[in-house]
Amino acid sequence: MGAAMQGFGDELSAIAERFRQQKQQQDAFDADIIGRELNARIAHAEAVAVQTAPADGSGLHDFMYGQLDPRSDSVVKPGLFDQIFDDTAAKVPESERANFLAQKQALRLAGSARMAAQQHARRQNYEQAEWSKVEDGYTIAIAQGDPDDSGTFEAIRQSGLGLIGKMGNPLARQAAEAAWRSNTAKALVQAMIAQDPKRAAGMLGGGPVSTDGRTKDDTIEAVGGPRASGSSVLATREAPASGLPSDKTPIRTGSMGPVGNTAWAAAGPWMADLSPDAIQDLGRKAQVATAASLVDARTDIDLALQNAPAAIANTGSYSGKTPNAEDFTAVYGAEDGGKRLQAFNITADIGRAVFDMRPVPNRAIHAQIRDFEPGPYDSREEREQYEIRAGAAQLVLGARRADPAGYVGQLFSNKAPDWSKVSTPEDHEAAITWAIAAQQEMGFDRILPLPWAAADQQAAKYIDQSVPFEKRLAELSSIVLAVRDPDARKATTQQLSLTAEAQWRAKAAQDPNLAPELLEAQVAVLKNGLAWIGEHPARAQYSTMPLLQQFGLAFSDVGRLTAKGAAADGADAISAGLDSVWSSGNYENLLEDEQAETADAEDRAGSAGWAAEALGAGLSGYGLAKGLFGLLGRASVGAAAENGLIGLAARTGVGGVAGGTYGGAYAYNTGGSVPWGIANGALWGAGGNVLAEGLSAVGSQVVAKLTGRTANAEFAAGQADEASPIPTAAVEDPVDLAQDGVNSTRASSAAGNLTQAEMYDLSLVPTKRTTTNKALRRQWELLHGQPWPKDPATGRNMDVSHEKVLADGGGRSRIKHHASCESRSY
User: Fold this and answer.
1) Higher pLDDT, 287 or 674
2) Per-residue pLDDT reduced to its tens digit, 107-139
């Protein structure tokens, strides 16, 4: 029993030992896992601490591992490591905790070394980064500064060296110092290159530097310019333009850089800090900069020569870079550069004078030139100033003569009309009126109604054959008609005629098949048509209207002109007065409108208008005369009805009274002298009666001879007839097409009967004729030595024809004339 119990006890002890061993093994495993987790947490905490630490790494070690007492190694200030380790130790199994805690000091030492290294590295990086910023700022300041300011350069150098000496790493200090000396030397050379690349290139080995800084081969042939000649010279200008060198200021025309400064003369000390490779690289840069500077200088000069005078003349200043004396010398050499600079300054001064004269009237400009005219004892400078002003005056007056309307438009741009937006006839009237008034105010000796740009645009519309001629004629005539001043109308069409002719000839130059004779015929039609529009704009517009509208307007015009004659030119005033009462409108404006309508009616009616006006005047005068005759008859005065001198005197007196009455009324209505109108009307009335009765008597005698009737019988019949003086048929007023190219009613041509407006349609000008009739007649006259024969019946030129007609292939045919002409003019 005892043995059995002993055996059982041993077995239980064995089981317990195995359990203890198993438990110890598990605790060791768990402790190892926890230790690994601790290491991971420490690594993560270190990484976060490094990332979040200041740029210089300050406090990084203490934050992570705290501080220890160097004598006792006891913790004086715990860090993040202590917190992590203590939190982790609480998780370690009890059996392994002692061993785990024993590792803390070793872990602290290892981690502390790592953080110290990290903090030191960050500090070095921080010092290097901060020094790089300082170095970049200093080198940029040197490169962009004045290379001749050696004091500033040395101060910057010493300041940099002082900061380098405070760097903690000895090796970093040594490397930074060497680089600093080299970089500052490079920056100074770059400043020299920017100031004078030629001298910098010579200093770096491109050639020896002379006392004035120029190299042995100081030329600009690398960029295609002439060789610079001569040494440094001084140039002066007495009266430069704005923005150029001041008066009598010395201008160096030899070297582009200063002479004798310490930075250039004592380059040795800091040149020793440059490596051979650096010197070679800077030398190439200096040569490239030399060529580039010459190119830039030439570009600045060319641009200034092209644009500066005009810009100064227009705005008073030049926004581009103004080349200086050094630029001219570098590009053209000392002697030629000085001359070119002087010429440029004079040109710029002329531009300034032009700008000053722009708002000055012509009379004041002439007065200025007279006032500045030099005398025999004036200085060269005074004569130069006079020449500058005279040249400016010539340019200003020439520009005003060339495009006067465009000139005032630019001068008074805030008040001038925008011609690109002028479209309606009313707009044209207002714009042309303003342009003429502005030119008159400025005293221009040449006045044009349109800017040439606007005239070109309008002329292009008129000769655009893609648009129907009636539409083009209606548009242009409405514009001309809106301009009420006759002189302005004429000037407008003359200006359009010049531009239209130029455009038509330019267009014809592109057609090699167009014969010169045909071109001249087309140009003649074009010019005559525009002249007709300028003289008769209302008639031109009337010709484009539909027939029914023409009939109604003609009827209205005859009535208006008849009323004008009947009221002794007072119908417009009467109508305006009535309209002002009915419509409460302004009388003056209404009167202007009525007078404009009457003027247009006279233009449209032509000779028929004269007849209608004479009819109205005749009716009113005839009624007055009949009344006076009746009054004399009732007064038992019958002498007016008698024959002979007594009757003639009585009728002449009555005519004088009637004429005087009408003349006085006409003078009153037109604003003239009433007494003079009465006297003039009486004279014409009396004289007209004598002339009329004399012509009637002579006419009666002629009729009597032709018909066998007695003159007295014919005269009596004429006195008894009181028919209307209006003729039964309209009388046409033809004009020789060979002279003017117009016919007021109908004109015969090879194409058939054309209206007056159609005579100016270039599309109707014959295009198949090889030689004009006028040229053929001239050839015939030269061949036969006598004038071209006339048709005895009509007095017109006899027809010209070819032996072989053009339709059958006739070309250079012989000329013959025949008497069976068709009353056509050529």
Assistant:
1) 287
2) 888 998 998 999 899 899 998 999 999 999 999
User: In this structure, which amino acid lies at residue 794?
Assistant: T
Find out whether 200 and 193 touch, Cβ atoms under 8 Å. yes
Distance CA(774)–CA(788), nearest Å, equals 10
- Give me the phi and psi of 755, to 5 degrees please: -75, 170
Tokens of 565: 């004659």
* Dist. CA 149–CA 187, nearest whole Å: 13
Q: Rounded to an integer, what distance in angstroms lies between the CA atom of residue 417 and that of residue 439?
A: 14
CA torsion sign, 673 to 675 to 677 to 679?
negative
Amino acid at 770: T
Backbone φ, ψ for residue 769 (5° rounding): -70, 135
- Which residue did the predictor score with more confidence, 210 or 178? 178
Among residues 87, 86, 93, the alpha carbon closest in space to that of 27 is found at: 93
Tokens of 556: 């209205």
Give phi and psi for 261, each to the nearest 5: -80, 155
Reading the block at residue 12, the tokens are: 């239980």
DSSP state, residue 223? G
Say which DSSP state 807 is in: G
C-beta separation of 645 from 608 below 8 A: no
Residue 6 has pLDDT above 60, yes or no: yes
Q: What span, in angstroms and rounded, lies between the C-alpha atoms of 808 and 752?
A: 21
Of 60, 51, 58, 67, which Cα lies nearest the Cα of 108?
Answer: 67
Can you tell me the distance from the alpha carbon of 381 to that of 346, in angstroms, rounded to the nearest whole number?
12
Cβ neighbours of 491 (radius 10 Å): 19
State how far the alpha carbon of 343 is from the alpha carbons of 336, 339, 385, 563, in Å.
Answer: 11, 6, 13, 72
- 34-43, 431-440, 657-666: least confidently modelled range: 657-666
Q: For the chain, give me the number of helices (H) and strands (E)?
A: 30, 8
- The token pair at 81 is 């490591």
**CA-CA distance, 234 to 248, in Å (whole number)?**
10
Provide DSSP, 91-108. TS-HHHHHHHHHTHHHHH
pLDDT tens digits along 460-509: 999 998 999 888 999 898 889 888 888 888 889 899 999 999 999 998 88
Single-letter amino acid, residue 738:
A
Q: Are 206 and 286 in contact (CB under 8 A)?
A: yes
- As a residue count, the chain comes to 826
Q: Answer whether residue 291 shows pLDDT above 50.
A: yes
In terms of pLDDT, which residue wins out, 239 or 803?
803
What was the pLDDT predicted at 711? 35
Would you give the end-to-end CA distance of the chain in angstroms? 171
pTM of the model: 0.52
Average pLDDT over residues 86-107: 87
Q: Which residue has the higher pLDDT, 379 or 719?
A: 379
Give, as one character, the DSSP assignment of residue 799. Answer: P
CB-based burial, 688-719: b 16+ in 10 Å, e otherwise: bbeeebeeeeeebeebbeeeeeebeebbeeee
Angle at 406 between CA 402 and CA 407, to 5 degrees: 75
